[in-house]
Specification:
By secondary structure, the chain is mostly beta strands. It has 1 helix and 56 strands. Helix content is about 5%, strand content about 50%. One of its GO terms (molecular function) is cell-cell adhesion mediator activity.
Length: about 550
């Protein structure tokens, strides 16, 4: 019997082992690529280092794979390096480094990747400050505060009378949800006493930048069972870009606690999802301002005993069209004329600011140029230096954007102006004379030379320089003497200047006493006369020594002593 059982076992085991090995062979293990270090969004400080980490391994076999970093819509900039361990290192974060980055790995047909974003750290001013309040002793109190946008998320703390305040319950969390980068903070005080009176400030802190922003001061007054109604602060005029968030404030004190209602253009605001009321109605928040929200707003407080109304405040949604009403066009004007380059900016609330640019540089204020209230550019007296390319730019500071007009060319025509040098020339026969004629004007003037009304022809000993601006006369002869005129002309006008050229003749002595006999002690006159171009200069020398006569009271020349 035992033998039989043993035999049966021997028959069953091989079958089971066969089935087990078969199941293993037909069910191979499945491998996949996974992140051992999941890349995360990076927040850095400009001009400081930043590191993004990323690591990938294959689960079968468990082998680390090399990763590759890429920048969305571009290449990795200079100063951005991938390390041997797969991390991406920014040696000095720049503005152009901000944006999306992809960390990926591949093994055969398998691939894995993750997209992260690099943002710069910043902290904006407090969005909503705590409001001053008057409460009755023993009541509960809530101070609310909302930070400005912050990256990374701001931390909120509280000050009382300029000192850190830790009493009560402090709650904070994300404000608004979604992509909001604001932090909401609430300070809750129970069983308020006179000791809680004081000045409270909300402090928002960015741990990465190690900077803080303080809210406006809120004053807490703790009183008795009844307090008169008072509007401590009403809404203020505000201009804000459309499609953005804003708020109107109405700070009310009084007991019993008043009910607060808001009005627009003397009509009570209806309930709608486009705005919310916070802090018992003291804060009217527009989640997304639209053009139809423009108007006068005021708050009204009522506690059955009294009713008060704040001063109205104007909400102006900032908008600007994308098309110019009138754009500049090419202009051609004469020097000295007045001309206007037209630029009527797009319709804008508030009105757009217009700036003018010349040759891609902001046009600075000049005495002969002024920008008109309409946006036009007026040249009172155009100068040649005003020639160039112009365009105007319209901007609305509340929208943080600008629109540029077409680029046009201002052509300035100027009549010729001629300057000749030298004004007069006296030269000798055989010499060379160079006469310069400097000409300005636009278009470039043509230059012609004439002598006594007849055109000067080149060739031989007369040549002209570039653009005929220089006249060369070599090997002067007596017939070259005369008046030479440089005349310049262009379609706008003409100008000319004249120079005189004189040929000096070599002096000839026509009277001189060759030898004279005279007694010792007698007076003698030695005549000397010459002809030639005036003025003539005479000089005397002793013929034997060929030296000038020395100064002596006994010797005179034309009545002058030597």
């Amino acid at each position: 019997m035992v033998s039989h059982l043993h035999t049966s076992a021997q028959m069953i085991c091989p079958v089971w082992l066969l089935l087990f090995s078969y199941s293993i062979s037909i069910t191979p293990s499945q491998s996949e690529l996974v992140f051992s270090i999941q890349p995360k969004d990076g927040i850095g400080i400009l001009n400081r280092p930043l590191m993004l980490h990323c690591a990938v391994y294959d689960t079968s076999p468990q082998t680390a794979l090399p990763v590759k970093w890429e920048k969305e819509n571009g290449r990795l900039a200079t100063g951005v390096h991938q390390m041997a361990n797969g991390s991406l290192f920014f040696s000095s974060l720049k503005g152009e480094d901000l944006g999306g980055y992809i960390c990926s790995a591949r093994n055969g047909s398998k691939q894995i990747k993750s997209v992260v974003t690099v943002n710069k750290a910043y902290l904006e001013n407090v969005f909503f400050s705590p409001q001053s309040q008057s409460v009755i002793k023993g009541q509960d109190l809530f101070f609310q505060c909302v930070s400005g946008d912050s990256s990374p998320t701001a931390h909120i703390s509280w000050l009382k009378n300029s000192r850190a305040f830790t009493r009560g319950t402090q709650i904070q969390g994300q404000y608004g949800g979604g992509s909001q980068r604001k932090t909401s903070g609430t300070l809750h005080l129970t069983n308020v006493t006179k000791a809680d009176q004081g000045r409270y400030v909300c402090v928002t802190h960015n741990r990465l930048l190690n900077i803080s922003k303080e809210s406006d001061t809120a004053t807490l007054i703790v009183g008795g069972l009844s307090m008169s109604l008072e509007i401590m602060q009403g809404p203020e005029n505000i201009t804000v870009a459309v499609e953005t968030e804003t708020a109107l404030h109405c700070v009310v004190h009084g007991s019993p606690t008043p009910k607060i209602q808001w009005f627009k253009d003397n009509q009570m605001l209806p309930n709608t999802s486009r705005w919310d009321l916070h802090d018992d109605g003291q804060l009217l928040v527009f989640e997304r301002v639209l053009p139809e929200d423009e108007g006068f707003y005021y708050c009204e407080a009522d506690n059955d005993n009294e009713r008060l109304r704040s001063q109205p405040a104007y909400l102006l949604p900032a908008v600007m069209d994308w098309t110019f009403v009138l754009q500049p066009v090419n202009k051609t004007v004469r020097k000295g004329d007045s001309v206007t380059l037209y630029c009527r900016p797009p319709h804008s609330r508030p009105p757009a600011q217009v700036s003018w640019f010349r040759n891609n540089r902001l046009l600075r204020s000049r005495s002969h140029i002024s920008t008109q209230p309409t946006g036009d550019l007026l040249f009172h007296s155009v100068q040649e230096t005003d020639r160039g390319f112009y365009f105007c730019r319209a901007s609305n500071s509340f929208l943080q954007r600008a629109i540029t007009s077409r680029k046009i060319f201002l052509e300035v025509l100027a009549p010729p102006s001629v300057t000749i040098w030298p004004l007069a020339v006296i030269s000798t026969v055989g010499a060379e004379v160079v006469i310069q004629c400097q000409v300005s004007g636009h278009p470039v003037p043509s230059i012609e030379w004439s002598k006594h009304g007849q055109s000067v022809r080149t060739g031989g000993k007369i040549t002209k320089g570039v653009r005929n601006a220089t006249l060369y006369i070599s090997s002067l002869r007596n017939y070259d003497e005369g008046f030479y005129t440089c005349a310049a002309s262009n379609p706008v006008g003409q100008d000319e200047k004249t120079i005189s050229l004189r040929i000096a003749a070599k002096p000839i002595i026509v009277l001189f006493a060759g030898s004279v006999n005279v007694s010792k002690g007698a007076t003698i006159i030695l005549p000397c006369r010459a002809v030639g171009n005036l003025p003539l200069k005479y000089s005397w020398r002793r013929s034997a020594l060929q030296t000038p006569l020395s100064l002596s009271p006994r010797i005179r020349v034309d009545g002058k002593r030597f």
